Amino acid sequence: MTATLTETERHGAPGSPTAPGVPTGPGALLVEVLAVAGRRLRHLGRAPGRVLGVALSPLVSMVMLGYLFRDAVTPPAGGEYTEYVFAGGAVQVALACVGPTAVSVALDLRGGLVDRFRSLPISRSAVLFGHTLADLLVGFAGMAVVTGTGLLLGWRPRAGLLPALAGFGLIAVLVYAMLWLGVLLAMTLRNVETISVVTPFIVVVLPFLSNAFLSPRSMPGPIRPLAEWNPVSAVITACRDLWGNPTAPGGGFPAEHPLAVAAVTLGALFAVCVTVGLRRYRTAGS
């Protein structure tokens, strides 16, 4: 396997000999990432229920709230409640990716896989980037299941093809940011049991503390600012605008500039998770 190594990874301690014949550069790093992603996908192929696990919570929300209770809930801006709630279900797909990624990385740490990768001439960053790339494809599969269900229940993108694709692109960015949040949780908590307790709250609590299912205006006063400034609310509002679906009125700056808020918050979250996650992974077990 080819490898891209940082100076410390390639040379080891100062004064140690350089590993001869080890290719470096973006091309070698890409090969490493794809190799790790392929290994991860082969493992996931033995557990196809992973896609259902990612899509299950969004499907329950869409069917229970968007279909069974659609006549009992009035969308804040009129229109069909099924179309209002779909963006909330799409965001839940991204949030549902946090737990499985965190658990799998923690299991790799517990099982000694990190030590085995250390013995190979491979960039340590390639391991996590390959892992998240494979999990991103699982997130796409879960999103396809949720989108198909939404279409069956009556959801429609009404602003044209390009805005619809842009909305799904924003969801893809959120999915990848959440995968790195899962990596950071794994590197911080490391205990599978603790991760399994903590991560379900991300899937359940964050959507209900946002505009996923109800307008923040209908929430109690102390909760309303949390729902309005929740980054999830910005992503949901931006997707509803791009898809031409009903949106919650008001909400101040986040509701008026959802794309800007989503870009800043997701960019900051991604930068922190990648930087801290890689740093802790490189020192794990050392």
Automatic annotation (TrEMBL):
Spans traversing the lipid bilayer: 49-69, 84-107, 128-155, 161-187, 194-214, 259-278
Superkingdom per UniProt: Bacteria
Domain ABC transmembrane type-2: residue ranges: 49-284
Low complexity bias: start-end ranges: 13-24
Region (Disordered): 1-24
Keywords tagged on the record: Antibiotic resistance, Cell membrane, Membrane, Transmembrane, Transmembrane helix, Transport
InterPro entries: ABC2_TM, ABC2_TM_bact-type, ABC_2_transport, Nod_factor_ABC_transporter
PROSITE patterns reported in the protein's UniProt record: ABC_TM2
Bilayer disposition of the protein: Multi-pass membrane protein
Subcellular location: Cell membrane; Membrane
Pfam families (alphabetical): ABC2_membrane (PF01061)
Family stated for the protein in its record: Belongs to the ABC-2 integral membrane protein family.
PANTHER family: NODULATION PROTEIN J
Record-given protein name: Transport permease protein
Organism, as annotated: Streptomyces glaucosporus
